[in-house]
Write a structure and sequence with these properties.
The chain has 13 helices and nine strands. The protein has 298 residues and is an alpha+beta fold.
């Protein structure tokens, strides 16, 4: 197995105490390539067509399935796969797959740098891409995927620019399909400031920082930060911070054997009882009951 594939697809050996997290290129300072494209067979046949739950902290994946089928588990939600279809796996989302033997299609893997540099916050494309989704294959996606893998396998002049352009076209098609499938009353208003806030939350949510600290780092008032967040999502900034912490708590309870107290400390809570109350307010049940319900299949 080549080194690139080993980094990305060593997904059958998860630690029971941590969510397995893998990189394809390492950190973004030194990319092995602009992006990565390969067939579904190449990544899944090695593991009997089953990939256990894992995540990529700085990688976004689009799967284009043409034939076969199976199921995808993304953040504990199971989605049937009925080709031709598109699977959107945001960076950080815990995901695993059970493919029918012989399933065909492609996996497109993009780095955070490529997305952050290529997608403007004002254009609203990033928000749909942050939503896990399994959708009917959008018109034009198969042709784009075929062009991407053909360009990826060549070493012609301008290859990097061609790959970036094709990849961004693919993300735009995916975002359009996801946005169309979401019930909405209009396009949310986004701003560069909100994009910087989202990045800060992703970087710092385990530190349990108050909203005022986020505002200070962004050189705005908490009131203005709340206004920007509400324009983008309909929620105040503090609710988005809580939601990110709650999402990570759910992932750790579902995919690891860490105790509720260990998860509390992992997420920056100094008191496990405080974490239990926080989780119960967000989900309607304390962590222990949440796990018991999972064990019963509820």
């Amino acid at each position: 197995m080549d080194q690139l594939r080993q980094f990305l697809y060593i997904s059958n050996m998860p630690s029971a105490a941590r969510i397995s997290s893998y990189n394809l290129f390492g950190e973004t300072a030194e990319l092995a390539d602009v992006l990565h494209v390969e067939t579904i067979r190449a990544r899944s046949e090695l593991h009997d067509w089953q990939l256990k739950p894992h995540r990529h902290d700085r990688l976004h994946q689009l799967l284009v399935l043409m034939r076969g089928g199976g199921s995808a588990e993304i953040d504990a939600n199971t989605h049937p796969l009925s080709p031709p279809c598109l699977v959107n796996v945001p960076r950080g989302a815990v995901h695993g797959f059970r493919f029918a033997s012989g399933t065909s299609g492609w996996v497109l893997t993009l780095t955070s740098d490529l997305l952050d540099q290529g997608l403007s916050a004002q254009e609203g494309v990033q928000a749909p891409l942050d939503l896990p989704a399994v959708l009917p294959l959008p018109d034009g996606m198969e042709a784009l995927a075929r062009q991407l893998i053909a360009e990826y396998q060549r070493r012609d002049f301008g290859r990097a620019q061609m790959l970036r352009g094709l990849a961004l076209a693919a993300t735009a098609l995916a975002a359009r399909a996801i946005a169309t499938a979401q019930p909405t009353t209009g396009t949310p208003q986004t701003s560069p400031l909100f994009g910087r806030f989202e990045a800060l939350v992703e970087e710092s949510f385990r530190q349990r920082l108050p909203l005022a600290d986020y505002a200070r780092q962004l050189a705005v008032s908490p009131t203005h930060l709340n206004r920007i967040a509400h324009q983008a999502t309909g929620q105040p900034a503090s609710a988005l911070i809580r939601a990110r912490t709650l999402r990570e708590a759910r992932r750790l309870l579902i995919y690891t054997s860490l105790s509720a107290a260990q998860i509390a400390y992992e997420l920056g809570f100094s008191d496990p009882a405080h974490f239990s109350r926080f989780f119960a307010r967000g989900t309607g049940m304390p962590p222990r009951k949440f796990r018991q319900q999972l064990a019963r299949g509820g």
